[in-house]
Amino acid sequence: MTSGQEVAALMKQEIGEQPEVWRRLLASDQFDGPAQQIAQRRPRMVVLAARGTSDHAALYAKYLIEVVLQLPAGLASPSTISAYGAKPDFRDVLVFGVSQSGGSPDLIRYLQVARAQGALTVAVTNNADSELAQAVELHLDVLAGPERAVAATKTYTAELLALYLLLDKVRGGSATAKPLPDLGEELLAQEPHIADQAQRYRFAQRLVTTARGYSYPTAREAALKLMETSYLSAQAFSAADLMHGPLAVIDTQVPVLAVVADGPGGHTMHPVLERLCEVGADVFTVGTADAVRKSTGGLVLPGSVPEEVSPILEILPFQQLALHLAVARGGNPDAPRGLRKVTETL
Ligand code: F6R
Fold this sequence. Notes:
By secondary structure, the protein is of the alpha/beta class. It has helices at residues 4-7, 9-16, 18-27, 32-41, 52-68, 79-82, 105-116, 131-135, 154-171, 180-188, 191-200, 216-230, 239-243, 264-267, 270-278, 289-293, 310-328, and strands at residues 45-50, 73-75, 93-99, 120-125, 138-141, 206-211, 233-238, 256-260, 283-287, 297-300. Residues 1-5 have low confidence and may be disordered. Fructose -6-phosphate (F6R) is lined by residues 51-54, 99-101, 103-104, 151-152, 224, 228, 342-343.
């Protein structure tokens, strides 16, 4: 291997495949049956179990479920069942397991117990033969194809879109997601700009990511991707939480990555951007033109999609940033230290 691009070949290829994966999902008819069954069961609340990147997809779905379906939703703590042996009453609860591999024992156990305890269970995976997919009543295949890079990229946005298409069907359906593949291609073409940005962070030791609402999972996922590929300490905060204390860690040496979508969550970010500028922070924003103007630098998202689908686009530049930063720091994001493709936790 002689050049950076060869080092990161798998991750680069899989980042680039995302618009095609989204086209496959948009053409799929697998959402109708499960959406009907969910609507008929009329759950009273929703619980989502997931880990790592998939947990960020689950967090996105939590926002959708509460805002769009107006149902309370929460993220599971799988150890309550897998380690403590709890058997909660899951009647009238819809329980999701989100996992690209469908292979982590704690998630499988959580979904098995939830089903036995009365939940309607759904798995969202990239492996229809996985134990998680077999453990549930309803399975959605995210159709991402084999993901070989250790850092999950295409399975993340495929999970987001699969969850969106299902939940959108439950509410009656819309055409909101249709422009995403073309917009994704447009956004991915901005890679040279992101590669330049990566050079700015080459020697950074710490970094903070922040957003609100639907985009908060993007901030979490961007931080995880940077940590696992570039080995820097990246901490994600809801911008509301950032203002309640952690703002104190930010100075000219701690760059901030912000996500500002066009919608109610994004609007709440504007005073935060102003405050960050007051403390002299270096703020790189992915989002609306207005927000990028208020930052030190950034990338304007193409088109103007509703905030509820914006996270599917927003993460692309951060995936590219993680790749380029890892390479700039002498690493190989295809094989980050200490990580395997399938992580099994109990
Ligand atoms: C990050 C990554 C991990 C996984 C996590 C869950 O790039 O790949 O954080 O997302 O180990 O794995 P699954 O989705 O297979 O349950």
